[in-house]
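# step 3/5: fold
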Amino acid sequence: MIKALRKFRVRVLWFFRNYKKIEFHSTLITDELTGPVRYISDGVITCNNTAFLEQARFKQAYALAKSTQPWPGFKSEWRVMINCWIAEQAMRIEGDFVECGVNTGAYSRAIIDYTHLTSSTKRFYLFDTWEGLVDAQISAEERKKGIQNYDYKNIYEKVQKTFEGLPAVLIKGSVPETLDQFKGEKVAYLSLDMNVTLPEIAALEFFWPKLSSGAFIVLDDYGFMLHEEQKKAMDQFAAKMKVEILPLPTGQALMMKP
């Protein structure tokens, strides 16, 4: 009984010492072995090394991503770093870059800077309606989860200014109808971030034969519970192509063309 009371006392004292720290950006999760939390966002919380956050090259690219103002309180360093790293590998592979689902262009703007894309012959094809989701493409299951409630603005003119003078080809309209406007022969990098299953699978089926061997596909929505229908469809596609999908704690996932 006395031992139990002592344990209870320790817990109560701990709570009163630390309750102010229990918040979204918590500094509470720490111990003598791991040290303080060094990163928390996109479902990731870690006490591990985050030196990349201080690298000048990444900081500059991330600042450009943030300047596009994709959403209030934008904080997605790890997701942006994953996209930049994959794109850097793609610089050694034959083909252009493609992003389906662009919004303000945060990822693609960071990638262009991080990879020094302007110094290459590669082009970055950017597909988006820039007017929000296409209602007819939202399935009944996706509608139940509230996908249709995403609030996207008409930002096409703003995005045009963001990529002015850069090796980007903006293709406005809905996928798959606009896919035939892709004029490249090969693809070295493909990002899918359209929040809805139908256009993402259509884009993947269209670009799969064009992907160079070793090219990565970034599935931005794969791990988010709201987008479970996309995950199911991607899993089926991967099984059909006999490839594996690597899920990431950021909610993203990676697939590679053999």
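# step 4/5: annotate
Residues 2-18 form the longest helix (17 residues).
# step 5/5: archive (pending)
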